Amino acid sequence: MKITILTLFKEQFIGFLNTSIIKRAIDKKIVEVEIIDFREYSNDKLKRVDDVPYGGGAGMIIKLQPIIDCLKTIKKEKSKVYLLSASGHVYNQQTAIKLTQCEHLILICGHYEGIDSRIVNYIDGEICIGDYILTGGELAAMVVTDSIIRLLDGTINKQSLLEESFENNLLEYPQFTFPRDYDGYKVPDVLFTGNHQIINEYRFKESVKKTLLTRPELLDVSKFNKQQLKWFNDLENNVKIVNAVSKAKKFMK
């Protein structure tokens, strides 16, 4: 897979591309990440890429010409182009999984007061990573790129992916390591039983409880197998979370 990021601030990606899992994935040829300064495509003699907004208003608007000329140069038949934008669809794990199927993904980072709105005629969609405003699209591009790369075969252990938050519409169960007792806070005894069936039941129920208490809208019981559905029904008899289960049911799909 190839990911191309169009930006005015290439230097922001230096650390991102040269550390940890991202660097290893690039070194192993699992993914190619290309950073392009679209200022280089400006036909302005001073390489300006922005101008004042028609109709007046604060700030500067990025012009179409540098971005579209860049796209004409790099875009292939199977390329998919997305703009990082506060007005886009909110990004989630399902979208990340979908984008891993792209042979060539192009991400456009906005800046200043935004990009000329006619950009929508040249892209496949807009992505928003949350209901807040950033100075530019660079951080959002890193978030999207990271979330995709870690899903690609060979980047990290597949079992780790299966047990993460948002898989099966559940938040991840609590994790612990040594020592067994730290400052009076103890690791649950069930994790030392050696009985994987019991441990799996405990972890599933903890995932459900955590999801019910913090993100009940995620819960989708249709994704549970027969055993998990039985464990879920057991939870309804636990007085500590009966109210949480009751409240969450209105969100269940």
- Report helical residue fraction: 25-40%
Structural class: alpha/beta
Quote the CATH topology of the largest domain. Alpha/beta knot
Number of strands: 9
Low-confidence stretches: none
Give the terminus-to-terminus CA distance: 33 Å
What does this protein look like?
- The structure is a single chain.
- The chain is α/β, with parallel strands linked by helices.
- The chain has helices at residues 14-17, 20-27, 64-74, 93-99, 138-149, 158-162, 196-214, 226-235, 242-248; strands at 2-7, 32-37, 50-51, 61-62, 79-90, 104-109, 125-128, 181-182, 185-186.
- It has a 5-stranded parallel β-sheet with strand order 2-1-6-5-7.
- β8 and β9 form a beta hairpin.
- α7 crosses α8.
- The longest helix has 19 residues, at 196-214.
- The model has no long low-confidence stretch (mean pLDDT 90).
